[in-house]
Amino acid sequence: MPVRILMVCLGNICRSPLAEGILQSKLPREHFIVDSAGTGNWHVGKQPDSRSIAIAKSKGLDITHQRGRHFNVADFDRYDHIYVMDSSNYSDVLQLAPNAPAKNKVNMILDELFPNENVDVPDPYYGLENGFSNVYNMLDEACTLIATKLLQ
Ligand code: 4NP
């Protein structure tokens, strides 16, 4: 059985699509399935934001096939690990968790780099273009650590 990892943000068009693409690129597809979802439903069925597509492309990753989807309670059964981008996503996801094992699957992604500091991946949606580059770099570092752990 492959290990399944879900990346979660608010819109599922900026941060979590990048996290999905980055982590999947660091793991063999036959053993690891990486997906993403949003706690909000505004962008269901949409491609990632063009700025996320562009920064990914500049790093050699194609995320254009991804489509937005809404996080739901069944995701706690479908996934082994759920990484959220910020503390607001964390509380939104935990609120839906049916039990302790489900809660224990959820972690802030930057806890990988800064354990127990609750550092957010800043939402780049309303910001400047370089916000996407900063987000990419943070996620790349975090995903390197996640991939190393998962491959042990
Ligand atoms: P994301 O960014 O959570 O990183 O995908 C956002 C995208 C869209 C919206 C908010 C955040 N929105 O309000 O539509």
From TrEMBL:
The keyword Hydrolase applies. Residues 3-149 form the Phosphotyrosine protein phosphatase I domain. Keywords: Hydrolase, Protein phosphatase. One of its GO terms (molecular function) is protein tyrosine phosphatase activity. SMART domains: LMWPc. The active site is at C9, R15, D123. Pfam families: LMWPc (PF01451). SUPFAM superfamilies: Phosphotyrosine protein phosphatases I (SSF52788). It is an enzyme of class 3 (hydrolase). It comes from the Bacteria. Its EC number is 3.1.3.48. Belongs to the low molecular weight phosphotyrosine protein phosphatase family. This is protein-tyrosine-phosphatase. It comes from Flavobacterium kingsejongi.
